[in-house]
TrEMBL record:
Keyword Secreted: no
Protein name: GNAT family N-acetyltransferase
Limits of the N-acetyltransferase domain: 18-161
Organism: Massilia aquatica
Taxonomic classification: Bacteria, Pseudomonadati, Pseudomonadota, Betaproteobacteria, Burkholderiales
Presence of keyword Nucleotide-binding: no
Keywords: Acyltransferase, Transferase
Signal sequence annotation: none
Amino acid sequence: MTAAVVLRPMSGASFDAYAVRAIPLLAEAQSRAYGSSAEAARASAEAAFFKICADAEPEASGQHLYVIEAAGVDVGALWFELRQAARDPYVYLYDWVIWPEYRGQGSGSAAMRLLEQRARALGARRIMLNVFNDNRFAADLYRRYGFGPASSILVKPIPND
């Protein structure tokens, strides 16, 4: 039986703990996907995470950050932004992570259901996200939750002469 899962708004201390775990994961994925150096990928990941720190009220800028909690334990995180496209609001999911030691216990499924409820309450009509091509596990997981491809970003490296 899965423990009750809740989305708890992320505090400053919770965000710091989340960033310590998540920034290296994003940097590694960006480095693999884009062929950037580890330093450049780290800087990009840090910029993505800390752009929201300048705003004392992240939700005022459309950012929604939550700790995924099961039975009082922080088991992961959820970060999304409400966006508007031609009167067609949608949620862009930046991160949905269950920490490895808590995977396979149903918390991710419960968190996705809660995300859908929040998105609906905000007036969103869809949820969008990015998944790197080399992350087949995540791509398969998203497909199981009803996500499908909407576009592709193709990259062509330019060799040094």
